Amino acid sequence: MQPEKFYYDNKIVRNFGIATIVWGIIGMLVGLLVAIQLYKPAMNMGNQYTTFGRIRPLHTNAVIFAFVGNAIFMGVYYSLQRLLKARMFSDVLSKIHFWGWQLIIISAVITLPLGITTSHEYAELEWPIDIAITLIWVVFGINMFGTIFKRRERHLYVAIWFYIATFVTVAVLHIVNSFELPISFLKSYYLFAGVQDALVQWWYGHNAVAFFLTTPYLGMMYYFLPKMANRPIYSYKLSILHFWALIFIYIWAGPHHLLYTTLPGWAQSLGVVFSIMLIAPSWGGMINGLLTLRGAWDKVRDDVILKFMVVGLTAYGMATFEGPMLSLKQVNAIGHFTDWIIAHVHVGALGWNGFLTFAILYWLIPRIYRTELYSKKLASWHFWIGTLGILFYAIPMYWSGFTQGLMLKEFTQEGMLKYPNFLETTMRIIPMHVMRSIGGTLYLGGVIMMAYNLAKTMLKGSLVANEAAEAMPLAPNYTKAQDGFWHRTLERRPIQMLVLSLVVILIGTFVELMPTLTISSNIPTIASVKPYTPLELQGRDIYIREGCVGCHSQTVRPFRSETERYGEYSKAGEFVYDHPFLWGSKRTGPDLQREGGKYGNAWHYNHLMDPRLMSPGSIMPNYDWLITQKLDTSNTADKINAMRKLGVPYAPGYEKVANRDLNKQAQDIADNLAKDHIKVNSNKEIIAIIAYLQRLGTDIKANKTASN
Amino acid sequence: MFKQFTENISGNQFYLLFSLSLFLVFFIVVTILLFKMKKDHVDSMSDMPLHDSLNDTLKSLQS
Lengths: 708, 63
Hints:
The complex is a heterodimer.
Chain A: E1 4-9, H1 11-37, H2 52-84, H3 91-111, H4 127-149, H5 158-176, E2 180-184, E3 187-190, H6 194-211, H7 215-229, H8 236-250, H9 265-277, H10 279-292, H11 297-302, H12 304-326, H13 329-335, H14 339-368, H15 376-409, H16 422-428, H17 430-460, E4 466-471, H18 486-490, H19 494-518, H20 534-545, H21 560-565, H22 601-609, H23 611-614, H24 625-628, H25 636-645, H26 654-675, H27 685-695, H28 699-702
Antiparallel strand pairs in A: 1-4, 2-3
Chain B: H1 2-8, H2 13-35, H3 39-46, H4 54-62
Binding site for heme b 1; low-spin (chain A): 59, 346
Family (chain A): Belongs to the heme-copper respiratory oxidase family.
Pfam family, one (chain A): FixO
């Protein structure tokens, strides 16, 4: 048999590499802006398109799906071809994948500042973009499996199992968390409401971390680390064990994002137990990575790429130990909703994803350009400035999280809240936020240095767009190995590998989601909870548009420190008409679930216009455009119809008279404001959002009896 | 710490026990099968990333 000559496609790898760098800088720049907004409200820049609520999702989406997403595709396209000894299945599909993904990112850059959002964290993009993501993901899948099918290497290396599991799980997560009923081109409501919606979202949210930020990176680690260190992976057996254990366990851990909420207790317990168990497979991966460098630690001292890998793997180990600890209820009670979580995710994002990406870029770009790195010294500077950046970011955020978490729980000897005013705790942590933005600046500075260094490297060399390679074709008649080892068999059967991965992740998904989604007794209803009025519904959509959920939770946990501060703790039945749920994950400001009736309409009007008028020192942006912008009521009937389809009991034909009720309620609020000498037309957006805020949590203030 | 789990899952222990036993069985099966793995196969799989460039391929063809 003659060896076959073929060419690796390096151009697509280069393109994804450049996109990684460009979007990385943009995403981190937006991150820096939102970080500064948290202590300088003027940085919201006085217009609605750059307020924190709207651009914080832009930051998260840009770094997760644009920076990390492009880096994944860069790493996968490079390693897949070489591990399979085959060019990518189709150059056309590679191009569609690349440009399609960039267009999706651009659509996010346009829609998110416009306030077009579904409000589900890391899944904010509206339904047409969701469909586009699905299509491009399928293109990626076809291209990957097409390459696998035409491979010249019988067995699939461990990195490829991680890629397969990533592909199939992200597809399942994205589709299930995109069950939406469109009401117009760029607006939809989620099928599930309240507790169910929360469970689906955090099943998705947690596993987006698992299968977008973790498994593809573990795959890349298993390929690139042996290349960088020029030695095989420490333990191949450990890689099999930790792969199957990781994908089995990860899928169950989502409910740890919902501890002490109204999610059924058994589901919370399940989330906690599996989160603790996650330490084992996560550390299996970290140990396997670090021990690959056994006997090569002298290289780490000289080689900046290995330095990035070691710090990245250490950050992974820290984040995956901290995650399970945070899922312990007692720890979660303090850490949840605070900056502690921000520190936790950034140790993972900046350390694990960031540093691994940088290492791969520094390793890969000179190779595909057949040259040396422009400046090793500059790369070394990047390493140190980046490491310092992570420390300056994470330490102040931990400090801030502990400080605020403990302050909010502190009582005086007389049994009163020591800091009854939430704002007092916010002002205490402002110095930490200033330091955090310095840390972020250092980290971003390092990335810009890398961009310069790599651009110079590219200019110095020339791209080997098609890299020649040779390999023996696969023998058509494969004779099975005599030992018949199960995994050896699986390693040459990609489809079975895909199906088995799917089965493994579906087990956890079904056991965890199905009871809450299908058994009504898991969500006790409350007789006094009624659907939103048309004006409140419109106000709620403005609340969603402005991204209020980014800073204000709507779920009161059953702690005395919270019931004293906010009021009665939340009940599952209160959220049955909430499509989507708006519990939030961070309290930069106070919880709003019991906001209704706490202050007068005039207070809300002035507070939204300029929060510092009512709360001196507040860091909330001004929302003065709500006073001038007219509420769009042309879609009220569509919204009522959509909600009815989703099970909200509006009377038949109500959509025809909904705007009449809306106008009447709006006029009442405008009249009430006029008594406080505030002249505002009842057709303005601010009236709707006041109506919504005044409704929040009032259902069970009237009647606390639950029917179930 | 463990008390919180047993208290919170009243009437629903089934889910927890089912999930845990499922994982335990899965984990034990994978572990047992791993012990039966042949060393030469493990070595050839671990070496895979180190033999994927043209030079590596040529070397392996010459040998």
